[in-house]
Amino acid sequence: MLLLHIGQLATLKGGGKKPRTGTEMGNLAIIEDGAVAVKDGTIVAVGTTSDVRSQFDEGSSTARIELPNQLVIPGLVDSHTHLVFGGSRENDFAMKLEGKTYMEILEAGGGILNTLHHTRESTREILTGNAHVYATSMIENGTTTIEAKSGYGLDVENEVKMLEALRDLTERLPARIASTFLGAHAVPPEYEGRTDDYVDLVVQKMIPEIVARGLAEFCDVFCEKGVFEVEQSRRILLAAREAGMRLKVHADEIVQLGGAELAAEVGAVSADHLLKASDDGLEKMIKAGTIATLLPATAFSLNTDYAEARKMIEMGLPVALATDFNPNCANESLFFTMALACYKMKMTAREAISASTINGAHALGRGDQVGSIEVGKRADILVMSCPNPEYITWRFGMNLTHTVISGGEVIYTKFGR
């Protein structure tokens, strides 16, 4: 495949070894009249159209696609989603409109408890089918790598079922998926008032079972006051690390609890949310190499304050963006996420692109494989019907996808599959 005469080719070159930070986040390494050559699913040449044509041997079977006036960037990386669950939560949304808080909705039997019931009642096949619908929408919005968590089963059988559904989805989906075990998402009703006993179940039963079946690469914990306190979260994370899993943390979303500090302490790949994170916690994340994954659509859906992205970037902390798609935040679009990041978190459009591509890839430990358009990397490429990066967030609310390429194959185009 040859992509030729690209209006602007944003390669994000040089981001394979480490995430972009500071002023680097605004440098997309753009090539005018750019070109990309792909062979066997891998990028083999990048440069101007004349340069690439001079070094790439065009065979008769080579597909040539000309893209004048288009913006081409790496395929988007959604590094935090809750893709698999049963049921839906439109009734919760109605309660939100009445002014109920998240905790009030939870106490009324909504929230995670509502989804817990429907997830436990759903078959593995139903969970896979539901997730396929959501993931297909994400692909049509330019996403080629999706992280997905468990966390609505909250017992051994149903957490395994969720992750098996996710594995089934991986076999059906043209995008790549990273699996995360989030058994410590909430305390189920049968363990109410016995959080330490539930932590025992996660550590002694769930983690060994998940690892033995090879169902998840990461382990995540909802470290939050009234859910899993710092010491309980630390115990789960250390057990998961000892079992060979990489770590993520839902940190400091509702109150400043010390989740950012804990993420740095245990060597988590990312700490996510961070609306209430302390400056000391953020500094510790920088030293530990932990990425800040920000989820502005969650703040939008909850009508709360937003994370301080501008401050984090100026501190030198690598920032990623993700949708946080879940039953309480049904956001399947990183385009919408990027627009919110600009309007509500004072990021620039170019920083938002870096955060949704190469930094998202690093938040999944895949920065050497995807997230930039460079020779040797997987050919995950997004073609957009827009002339420049700023246009993306100017046309907020629009799906600007022209064509999505995953592993060198066209998996979606607005002109028909």
List the helices and strands and how they pair.
Blueprint (H helix, E strand, L loop, with lengths): L1 E9 L19 E10 L2 E7 H7 L8 E3 L4 E4 L1 E3 L11 H8 L4 H6 L3 H11 L2 H17 L2 E7 L6 H17 L3 E9 L10 H19 L4 E6 L6 H13 L3 E6 L7 H8 L3 E4 L5 H10 L2 E4 L1 H7 L6 H7 L3 E3 L12 H12 L3 H8 L1 H5 L18 E4 L4 H6 L6 E6 L2 E5 L4
Parallel strand pairs: 1-4, 1-5, 6-7, 7-8, 8-9, 9-10, 10-11, 11-12, 12-13
Antiparallel strand pairs: 1-2, 2-3, 5-14, 14-15, 15-16
Helix pairs in contact: 5-6, 6-7, 7-8, 9-10, 13-14
Architecture overview:
Strands 1, 2, 3, 4, 5, 14, 15 and 16 form an eight-stranded mixed β-sheet that branches. The chain has an eight-stranded parallel β-sheet with strand order 6-7-8-9-10-11-12-13. The longest helix is centred in the middle third of the chain and has 19 residues, at 195-213. It starts with a strand and ends with a strand. Helix 7 (195-213) packs parallel to helix 8 (230-242) and helix 13 crosses helix 14. The protein is built from 16 helices and 16 strands. With 417 residues, the chain is an alpha/beta fold. It folds into two domains: 2-74 and 371-413, Urease, subunit C, domain 1, CATH 2.30.40; 77-362, Alpha-Beta Barrel (TIM Barrel), CATH 3.20.20.140. Helices cover 39% and strands 22% of the residues.
Categorize the overall geometry. Answer: globular
Show unreliable segments. none
Number of helices: 16
- C-alpha-based Rg, rounded: 21 Å
Question: Number of folding domains?
Answer: 2
The structure class reads alpha/beta
* CATH homologous superfamily classification of the largest domain: Metal-dependent hydrolases
- Chain-averaged pLDDT: 95
Number of strands: 16
The CATH topology label of the largest domain is TIM Barrel
Helix content percent band: 25-40%
Q: CATH first level of the largest domain: which class? A: Alpha Beta
Largest sheet: 8 strands, mixed
CATH architecture title of the largest domain = Alpha-Beta Barrel
Distance between the termini: 17 Å
Tell me the fraction of residues in β-strands, as a range.
15-25%
